[in-house]
Write a structure and sequence with these properties.
The structure is a homotetramer.
Chain A: H1 3-19, H2 28-40, E1 44-49, E2 54-61, E3 66-72, E4 91-94, E5 97-100, H3 107-123, E6 129-136, H4 144-155, E7 162-172, E8 176-177, E9 181-184, E10 186-195, E11 199-200, H5 210-228, E12 235-244, E13 250-251, E14 254-263, H6 266-287, E15 293-296, E16 303-305, H7 307-321, E17 325-326, E18 348-356, H8 358-367, H9 370-373, H10 389-404
Parallel strand pairs in A: 3-6, 3-7, 7-18, 8-17
Antiparallel strand pairs in A: 1-2, 2-6, 4-5, 8-18, 9-16, 10-14, 10-15, 11-13, 12-14
Helix pairs in contact in A: 1-3, 1-10, 3-10, 5-6, 7-10
Chain lengths: ~400, ~400, ~400, ~400
């Protein structure tokens, strides 16, 4: 394999991308760079596919299956901690405030390894078929894949045979994890606006305090997972934002918070969403406030790997990775990857690879401090070790593509 | 009295000021206008007194006491409801966000009536002494008066005999309320930053959720007034702002909220501040989080009217207002007015006047719905009726000045 | 005055009563003893006045006003701490459980001093009129006075001229405190039964957990005093009992708690009661539980001293106690004393005397630790120092009686 | 099979036992009846085995394995709803209070079917070996099995080959569920005593209110499962009892509540127990209260079926029940059954059978209302339908015994 030859390119590209993250649907520099590299490699390139910055590169080589390979491009409004020389210092406006921007979910490793895999595959002459490389925007908003559907349908009216994607996770660099069936959760996004009655901070009796009300809701929402979801059913209810008030001595008229819900089964999802509604509106009655406004943001679908294709890929991974390949536990994280094959109703496989020092990971597992010692996605110190992370990701993508190409 | 002659000027000025509110320490247009009007009237005018936009006008007329008359100039980051033709449409940046700006505390009535009172006093020739008109910035931040102290000391090295100030309140227009002793509360401002551990919204077990933690603090802070302050001791603990998080599916690393505390006695104040510290840091231990950071913002002093001067003024008000003059209940609102006479250790008197339709107020009192039906200071519909509010405020200021001038 | 002569009797009686407390409406031994002592003194004695154990002793001496003197007889379900030789070791059944019983509200001092005062008055020959000594049961249940009304009306169809009562309080022994107007609060008693759905402790998702629900109510009730009652209006909302469940691994079907409310004004009382109802029923909606049952227990009336009679008594106290007599702050405690004069619509005066070491009290006041260092009524170490407490209480009752007798 | 012949006996016995439940370690009538029936059948009977009421019946028939068959005997302090003619009206004292007693966990079906199975087995002559029938007390206290260990060791010094037990569950009557590996959770019991400072209900500022404190703990404990346990790790934290206070107007000095914890893995168990300790003691700091007392009650072990024996039994169940036999989901309920084979370190298998109308169960599953419509163990309406519940339980026990006998 020619991975050695392309390793410097992949590592340089990773460092460059890590240092220049861009927020969802604003991946202009990133998209231009992806297109430029695809053109260098001689692929048929389409930019602006979908509503924003999607890039598609097509490599056609004779008869054979059409295989879609996907990397996502967006960073997050997270300020990176000082740890590596290629640290991001980017900032951008996020919900009316200036925030640091960081590839805190590792999409930079996805892009670098997909560009690397394309170079390796281009070097190889023992396959035929069509490779469709998709660089997708706005995975974090769960609307980038859906936004590309119309453009993809136009580019590939004949459909695809399989879609393949991967994600870096907390875990030992060098490891690959794959399972058939459900692998990632459904995600729901609720925006709650609580309507109180504002007034002077010294006269609470003339107001309905929306901060006490919304704080009570946050506390009470904890009972859903604790008391209403069966212990054997997985669910998460996270309040990720809470904003109210402009000044300490003014009781504001309203408060606003956002909830993220993760579930693995539709009945559990329905029960959780109903409980949120019940708790939020019930708390308004407790406070004597008008009903709160509950808006629904983008929802992410379940990610359910095709069982047959997963078995075929697992066999290929066994050969490529040996003991470093293991089954994946279903994750409560969510993805919109499945919206890409959903364009044509095609099957798909999605897998995971570790990104952290294997010694650190082993030690943390032994001590039972994995959750504390190994950075989790979206945290400001989620900075994978470069190797063997990038080698593994590149090899996994090449292996997967070849498992389905002729 | 020549009030009739100046009434149109006062009303026009009020409408103009109401339509052009400015935030604390940014009262540039307002200060320039105050100075222009003082100059028109022939006073000795000093601009930029203190750290920002303070204006002082001095009217000297022979021997006699020096009497300081004060109006405050700043508006609030509140978006006005549509109700009057002279509604404010101003906006400004407040804590990183754009907000509407409004004279939601009635400082426009203070300025208009003080300018009117100066015109009435200038017309009258039966007094002697020195009038010092002070237009103060940043009352809402409780630092405008302190900022003017150095400038005032330089302008008036000989000191003053008395300082006089007034404030519009929910209550019937036409009424004036005055009492000796404590009339406004001490105010403390605490800024709490809660340090959790951020991470992905679907993996709460790897994080310390600062939003659940800060919300629990808000809920638990309610027990201070409910359980730790004696029912006969007045205290208020208001959480006026709460900000955390940038995105629904990221558990942020920290949360921040601001507390406003009002008390009337030093032992109660100390107990409340100690309880806040205990609850905030105890909750951090509950959550397994590091200690929170508690910063102290500007504190407002108690406002304690001089007993003798209050008695003298009460007699003058009885004559001027008859039954419309009544004793004032101590208020939990706070002021930095007392920092002006504190420049020289001079005595002071501070009183209140109502600003709302007397029929509405009477009806609300009867129904027991005063708190609901009569707008409170800082609310987006705190818009006094123009008359008899402005007449009353102007007359009160003229009467008060004359009570202490020779 | 012949107090010295009766002091040993009073102290012995106090020790005896303290060692033998009885719960409300079960004051059988105590009532028999009171009656026995009244008979010894030659009074006309009536036992079983009212629905339980009330005792009335009448001393007629010629023309003159009829003055009712009252002591209450009941102890509390509180287990006394080991501190004095005459400590109570009594126990009784209270709400299905065995509890210690203690004179933790000092009614023993009321009885001892009233018996003492009657002996002193009997010794004196310079007064005329009728003394009605009332030993009342069940003050703690706020139904003992009401229970005696019918009996009293029958005994004294001509009515009384004045009713007099007193209570020992945390404060320096030797001090007496009296004011006209409102002196004690109204009290309301609510019993809340929360209806959840029981089940096995390991399957919360099949239940509606009434303990989490009732605990949330308790937490949320704190916002009434903290946010809904104006700081200048006194109110207390105490949850005094909370009982649910029989076994750790059974989620019970219901929970039950009791609330005590103290207020000084009818509009505040109405607002607080409405807020309790709103919060309790709103929380049931939050939990998806059926509406809770809210029962109203006995309510205590306001205690409002007659202004004229209070002024007359204050003059007498000034003479008797000098500087040790001071005005009383209105107390949030409640009493049913006023239900006795309410039998005939007669005026009344109710005052307080301290019961603790003056040096301890002074020191605690100086340090600001009064609330911590001086035991409060109903606590298991509310054990007054015998002297000058009993002398003061006896003298106060004699002085008061003589102030109204001819 | 001779089940038909014994069915009336089994049903009569069930009705009798259901109508006469007894609390844990007080199963005197029940134990006597079990022994009487074993004697009727001609078994070697041992009563009072262990610390209380355990009964052992031994049936020896030639060479062959020794198979222990277990039924538990205790009822619960639950008051039965009126639903069946053989309803329990028993009452007993439980933690100082009188409570109804009910077989709300279905142990009556265990006993009736084990007695039935022994009769069926006694009728059959095509097996050899030794059957040890164990009627165990105090399963609900998780100490009955441990209490029998010493007695069992003395009776059966040579050990046993296998132990077999079963439990009725919410589910369709006629169904049997069995899996190898972990089938029931570990259980921990914590008793928390919160130490506040008592006082009069109208003077909260002089107290540390233990009810508000304990209620806050209950609310905050919900965050453990909601935020600290990974969604893929099963855990339950139930507060099953909460008791504080004797009277509405006394703030008590302490409060007491009991927690039940269910977990399936030791690291999760340790994290949950540590979080409880942290939250409880942290809340004491929040309240300024002394540290709470946390006692540990009886803990229940994990129930982990022997894989080989489970596979053998599954094959036998497939033959006996066909499609009505299915794998068991691990349950968060706990058992002390495994403490019986632990006497000798012997393997064991434990399985479940349904007890409710199959049409009702099917409909509830379809509607997604299983949790609501099918009664759960320990609830006051957990009353299995008699058939095919008892037939299934008897057949399962006979089948299981024969699968391991020669």
């Amino acid at each position: 394999m020619t991975l050695e030859r392309h390793r410097p390119f992949i590592e340089d590209l990773y460092r460059e991308l890590h240092a220049h993250p861009e927020l969802s649907n604003r991946e202009h520099r990133t998209a231009a760079r992806m297109a430029e590299l695809l053109r260098e490699l001689g692929l048929e390139v389409h930019e602006g596919v979908g509503e924003s910055t999607g890039v598609v590169g097509i490599l056609r080589r004779g008869e054979g299956p059409t295989v879609l390979l996907r990397a996502d491009m967006d960073g997050l409004p997270v300020t990176e901690v000082e740890q590596v020389p290629y640290r991001s210092t980017a900032t951008d406006e996020w919900e009316g405030q200036v925030s640091g921007v960081m590839h805190a979910c590792g999409h930079d490793t996805h892009m670098a390894s997909l560009q690397g895999a394309l170079r390796v595959l281009a070097d190889q002459d023992d396959w035929s078929g069509t490779i469709v490389a998709v660089f997708q925007p706005a995975e974090e908003l769960i609307n980038g894949a859906r936004g590309m559907q119309e453009g993809l349908r136009a580019l590939l009216p004949g459909g695809i045979d399989i879609a393949l994607g991967q994600h870096v996770m907390p875990g030992a660099a060098g490891e690959v994890r794959l399972s058939g069936g459900p692998v990632m959760a459904a995600s729901d996004h609720l925006i709650v606006t609580v309507h109180g009655r504002g007034g002077h901070g010294s006269q609470p009796e003339k107001t309905i305090d929306p901060i006490v009300l919304a704080a009570s809701m946050v506390v009470r929402l904890q009972t859903i997972v604790a008391r209403e979801v069966a212990p054997s059913d997985r669910a998460v209810v996270t309040v990720g934002t809470f904003h109210a008030g402009t000044k300490q001595n003014i009781i504001p008229g309203s408060a606003r918070f956002e909830i993220n819900v993760r579930t693995f089964e539709e009945p559990v999802r329905r029960r959780v969403l109903a409980a949120i509604e019940r708790i939020v509106q019930g708390e308004c009655q407790v406070a004597g406030a008008p009903a709160a406004t509950i808006e629904h943001g983008d929802a992410a679908p379940l990610t359910i790997n095709d069982e047959d294709a997963s078995a075929r890929l697992a066999a290929a991974f066994d050969e490529a990775f040996g003991a470093a390949h293991a089954p994946a536990e279903p994750l409560l994280g969510s993805e919109d990857f499945s919206d890409l094959p959903a364009t044509w109703g095609a099957p798909y496989v999605y897998w995971f690879y570790g990104g952290f020092d294997p010694a650190l990971v082993a030690q943390a597992r032994e001590r039972g401090t994995f959750d504390v010692d190994v950075p989790s996605n979206h945290s400001p110190n989620f900075i994978p070790v470069m190797q063997p992370t990038l080698d593994t990701a590149t090899t996994a993508m090449v292996t997967a593509a070849r498992a389905f190409l002729a």
